[in-house]
Amino acid sequence: MVTKAEESQLSRLESQVENGGGGAWEYLCLVRKLKVRRSDKVVKHGLLILNDRKQRSALGPDEWTLYEQVAVAAMDCQCLDVAKECVKALQQKFPGSKRVGRLEAMLLEAKGAWVEAEKAYSSLLEDNPFDQVVQKRRIAMEKARGNISVAIDYLNKYLEIFMADHDAWRELAEIYISLQMYKQAAFCYEELILAQPTIPLYHLAYADVLYTLGGLENIQAAKKYYASTIDLTGGKNTRAIYGICLCRSAIANLSKTRNKDEKESEIASLAAQALEKDYKYRASDKLPLLTSALKSLKLSS
């Protein structure tokens, strides 16, 4: 995650470079370090350095790092001729390199040569099954092709090896949700909460999935996770507060002890009041819509 200080430094350097103030190499190094997506600018300023023999030779061994950075950025921008030239330079310098082989496969993918790219990725994984970049590229390629079931299979196999990759768990959960496979998505969020219990986003997403699954037990659990989201955000998550209201209404409709739990009613009432206060402050023009919604949930007079 990029910090505010790093983001500020990046913006300052980017403005400086764009306005001809120099510092292109420092900017490119920072983009690479922070792993941010600035493909068009990487291609623009990276090529200026690579096409200037004096600047290029001054980089020393980092020259080849820049060739790789520009190649990937050029593929992202569909500047395939630029990418091809960069990969060619790397092939000549490092013949037989697996790292360059990965770039060759990515170039095939960028061209839309799916079958050839799949063969290239599979060959690389035979040599090194633990290559995370290749595994992720293969998953991304299948998603781009619309082969979602294959992408799910690859993601599950990937997570068998790299269980601590939280981004992969989240991606898998989102794919399952898009396919309305909510039980499988719930499992992914359970893994994320176990690994990073203080991140409110995971609690909120898990609560949404449980509420969508429905049934008294799931909705009661969803209410708890909406509550934990509110706790983790210091009471500032409007969506979680509204989730409490929805859960309270659903539980009242499903439970045989409808409206008998005074504590539950009080919590729901407090959540409704918090929502109304929030809307008055941030979106007063939408307050009538909220009031109408709360009335339909029997949480407002």
TrEMBL record:
Stored Pfam families: TPR_EMC2 (PF22890)
InterPro entries linked: EMC2-like, TPR-like_helical_dom_sf, TPR_EMC2
Topology class, membrane: Peripheral membrane protein
Keyword Ribosomal protein: no
Entry's localization field: Endoplasmic reticulum membrane
Predominant cellular place of this UniProt entry's protein: endoplasmic reticulum
Keyword Translocase found: no
SUPFAM superfamilies, per the entry: TPR-like
Gene Ontology CC entries for this record: EMC complex
Domain EMC2 TPR-like: 100-209
Keywords: Endoplasmic reticulum, Membrane, Repeat, TPR repeat
PANTHER family: TETRATRICOPEPTIDE REPEAT PROTEIN
Similarity section: Belongs to the EMC2 family.
Subunit description: Component of the ER membrane protein complex (EMC).
Protein's job: Part of the endoplasmic reticulum membrane protein complex (EMC) that enables the energy-independent insertion into endoplasmic reticulum membranes of newly synthesized membrane proteins.
Record's protein name: ER membrane protein complex subunit 2
